[in-house]
C-alpha cells in the first residue's frame, strides 16, 4: 500500500538545514497495523504528516497504492488524501462550534456526495460507534474519551483505506485509552490499514510491527514483544 | 483543521468571506431600517435632504460591501494558505 524510498525532510536553518527525516525507506502492506515509536524530536509526527499527505515538501519517493505521491501537485495530493486517509490526533481537533453529527459530516462535505448520502453515512457512523444519543451535543459537552471516539468516527466515516493516528491516547486516562486501542484493533481486523505514532509500548503491542525512529533515521523495525 | 480534513483552499476563502458577508448583510439591513426610521423622525428638521434618499442608502450599502471584501479577503487568503500541520500544532 505504502512504499517510501529514501524519504528525506529538512527545514531551512542557518548555517545548514536541519534534517527531520533521513533516508527513510519502508513499505506498509494493506491491512497492516504499524506503530511508529521513538523519542521526542525523532521525526515521528513529521513522518506521519508526510504519510497523511499533509506535507508534500520532502525529498525521496512516496508511493501510495502505486501512485507517485511525490509527483502530485498540492491540489492532486489533497484530493488523494481526502479519499484515502483518515487522521486521528492527540488533541482530538473536533470543531467546537459544530455538533457531533456536524463534525462527522465535515469530511464528507468536502467530497462529491449528495446530501442524502452524507446523512445516511453520518447516521451509520453514529450507530456504529454507539454515539446516536450524543449527535446533537457539542464537543465541550463530551468527555475526552467520547471526543476521541467521535474523532475516530470522523476519521473513518468515509471508509478510507488508511488510518493515521498521532498519539491517539495521549490525552486519555488508561481505561479510555484501552477502549480507543481496542477500537483501532477492531477497525484493523475489518481491513483498515493503521499507522500510529505512540510513546506507549502497551499501545504499540496492538500493532503487528514497530518502526523505531531516532534523530530522523530509521533506527530499527521489528515485531512487538 | 478543515484543510487537514480535505477542504480545498478555495472553499476556505468562501467560508471566511461568507461569514463576513452574513454579518455585514445583517448590519446593512438593520442600518437601512434604522436610517429610514430616523429619516422619517427627523424629516421636519431636514433642509434640501430627502429623509430616505435611495441613492445615498444604496451607496452606503455598496461602500460597506466593498469594505467587507477588502477586509475579509486578506484573512480568508491567509487561512487558505495555512500549512495544516502548523495550524494543528499551534492549536
Structure description:
The complex is a heterodimer of chains A (225) and B (91). Chain A has seven helices and ten strands. Chain A has 225 residues and is α/β, with parallel strands linked by helices. Chain A has one domain: P-loop containing nucleotide triphosphate hydrolases (Rossmann fold, 3-Layer(aba) Sandwich), CATH 3.40.50.300. In chain A, the strands form two sheets. In chain A, strands 6-7-8-3-9-10 form a six-stranded mixed sheet, sandwiched between helices. A four-stranded antiparallel sheet of chain A has the order 2-1-4-5, with helices on one face. In chain A, helix 3 crosses helix 4 (115-128). The mean pLDDT of chain A is 93. With 91 residues, chain B is mainly alpha-helical. Chain B has one domain (9-81). Helices cover 76% and strands 0% of the residues of chain B. Chain B is built from three helices and no strands. Chain B is rod-shaped and about 60 Å long. The relative contact order of chain B is 0.18. The model of chain B has no long low-confidence stretch (mean pLDDT 85). The chains are: A alpha/beta (225), B mainly alpha (91). Chains A and B meet through helix 2 of A and helix 3 of B.
